[in-house]
TrEMBL record:
The chain crosses the membrane at residues 34-53, 60-79, 99-117. It comes from Pedobacter psychrodurus. This is DUF2809 domain-containing protein. It comes from the Bacteria. Pfam families: DUF2809 (PF10990). The lineage of its organism: Bacteria, Pseudomonadati, Bacteroidota, Sphingobacteriia, Sphingobacteriales. Keywords: Membrane, Transmembrane, Transmembrane helix. InterPro entries: DUF2809.
Length: 119
């Protein structure tokens, strides 16, 4: 792993961030917002790390997938309440408050897309 600055991934991160905000603000459907947004969030996190790190992309993508699965399973045990953040709307949105097997599938799809990125 090496510290670096990658403008390509900065552009990807910013583009996906804008798309995520637009999805969150403008879409209230049953597929793109819940599933597509979760696919994109994995790619968003991956792109953020790739801005600053030159590393094995497969290991990074796997680490992000494992992290996202842990967060999803923590949602099943209502960890936002444990942290005392249930009344903080922003943190509840960022951390998530409901478990779904479809979210795990979306994260896996995002992981597979991350594997397509090259250095």
């Amino acid at each position: 792993m090496k510290l670096t600055f990658n403008s390509k991934f900065l552009f990807i991160f910013l583009a996906i961030f804008v798309i995520e905000v637009l999805i969150g603000k403008c879409l209230h459907d049953a597929f793109i917002r819940p599933f597509g947004g979760d696919v994109l969030v994995i790619i968003l996190i991956y792109a953020f790390f790739r801005i600053f790190l030159k590393t094995n992309n497969k290991k990074l993508a796997l680490g992000i997938l494992i992290f996202s699965f842990i967060i999803e399973f923590l949602q099943k045990v209502n960890y936002v309440t444990w942290l005392g953040l249930e009344h903080n709307k922003l943190m509840s949105i960022v951390l998530g408050t409901s478990f779904s097997y479809y979210d795990l599938l979306a994260y896996f799809v995002g992981y597979l897309i991350c594997l397509l990125f090259k250095d």
